[in-house]
Amino acid sequence: MTGSLLFDPLVPYPLLVILAVLTVLGVVLALWRGLSGWAMRGLSALVLLAALAGPAWQIEDREPLTDIVLMLEDESASQTVSDRPEQTRSAADRMAAEIEKRPNTELRRIRVGDGDGDSGTRLMSALSDALNEEPRARIAGIIALSDGQIHDTDRAPELPAPLHLLLSGRENDWDRRLVVKNAPAFAIIGEPVMLSLRIEDNGAVPDGVGPMAELQISVDGGDPDRLSIPVGQDFDLPITLPHGGRNVIQFLVPVADGELTDRNNSALVQINGVRDRLRVLLVSGQPHPGGRTWRNLLKSDSSVDLVHFTILRPPEKQDGVPVDELSLIAFPTRELFLEKIDDFDLIIFDRYKRRGILPAIYLDNVANYVNGGGAVLVAAGPDFATADSIYRTPLAPILPAEPTARVIEEHFRPEVSEDGARHPVTSGLDGAGEWGGWLRQIDVLPRSGHVLMNGIEGRPLLVLDRVGEGRVALLASDHAWLWGRGYEGGGPQMELLRRLAHWMMKEPELEEDALWAEVQNQTMRIIRRTLEAEVGAVTVTRPDGTTDEIPLAEVSPGRFEALYAGPEIGLYKLSEGGKTAVVGLGPAAPREFEATIATQEVLAPLIVPLRGGVFRMEDGLPAVRNVREGRPASGRGWLGLTPRETYETRNIRQTPLAPAWLVLLLSTGFLIAGWLREGRR
Prior knowledge:
This protein is α/β, with parallel strands linked by helices. The protein is 19% helix and 35% strand. The relative contact order is 0.14.
């Protein structure tokens, strides 16, 4: 229990001051006039003023509160290298035992892991949360067990007590790190793109480590290429992307002897391969109402270079005009179909028929072009069913359907087939079932490939096929243009033809038989697209070589998906049904491993102001002492805690020092004494 004197005035303080001033003036006046009772009158007034001040003796029943010590234990990824986990755990347990032995002291152990995403060690955020939960007046000290690599010092709170750092790691630690300084998100297929790399050595690098290091480079998990690059210098490396879509490039530096960790010796870079310009050759057999459809579609895409070859005057037409006067320049057919045919990504034959303008050797070269990886699309008109059909040329072996010589001239509405509902070219087209009609279809018999759309009485209308390394498509009607004119409400003409052309040019998002993954943080969405009704489980190979079998569920026709959370950062390989894919999880260079050498520099601005200390765990733990607030809180082999001497008041009792009867008795007595003294004169 503790006692104290306090005042609880019965009147406001200003009024009490005024009364005190008037009392003093009255006493001075009495003294000046020579009144002998001035002292008694003054004492009477003083008693009244004291009574108005409300003096009381307060007794508090106090219970002392314990001091609180916060101990932050860094368990982030950078603390898992070498022997730091055991080193930190042992130091934490011993320091906890030392603090818990102290009287009137409580310990709060706070474990700090990695932040969300790639935000690194959030030690200051954890400290701020802990201070919000505890009375700051009871905090006697803060102890952090860490390698000092903190990534949220900008969120450091105002510290109520000294901060001490117990530093993990060893003084002779050294580490080699691979840094990708510059990597574009997109690059043009077939053209080199420049990446900037750097290999850095940090810490106590041994004398035997040379100035050069080996760098291994692999694309999509393939066999690596090796080269030697200098350490400590920026290195520009040209990379050529082999295909469109996502290219996963892995850079790896082999582990050196004595290196702290290999977690920062590799980096994953994912670059989307795009085509610079798509080159298309459009061969129109004769002018017709839909002849402008293909031209408008291809010219509307700024990334397409179009060469349009139109036969305006067939050889059988005799009008007396010399052939050499039919064009301003001679059309370079030999150059296009023999010498530079491989420069084109797609060749379209729109209502073309044999007229002797393109010799058989040219068309035979087109067939070879498809087998070598090219693409041909045939938009068939009535001539496709005649003896002059393009099917009666060297192109026949690569075409997916054979004409029956029948042209059906009647109204029908195109419909998506069962395979078409699963194929990305035709699945999900707007307004399916409500499209406008077409008026002509060429009757064909499919020989290979997949029928995506049907016409009259279920006859094949759109057939797609893969031939060799290339692709072929046959549209058995020349009336797609009716959709563009809004006939009977029209249909998705431009979208269908755009998808068809881009599938022919092997755009990754339109592959009907594909396996890939979409990544968000450490979770991937595995996607398998196929025309088959069922698929097997996807085999996921982790960076450490272990595998998981992940079953897929069909989410829409032809599309199967599953979610998979990767347990670690790195390159994952996926495989199912002969299809493979690679995907990188996590950042190209995890923030936790950008710097792995233990340091006190990051936390120094927080330690120095309150005179905290830094102690290496490998040198032994410091002793714990009490220090007064404002005094140095660390020294050689010791750290200090500041006792707070806080308490909780359980009960309060107040006893008035001037009860009314006493005030009345004293004030009256002094007045009477003064009056009697003055009366004797």
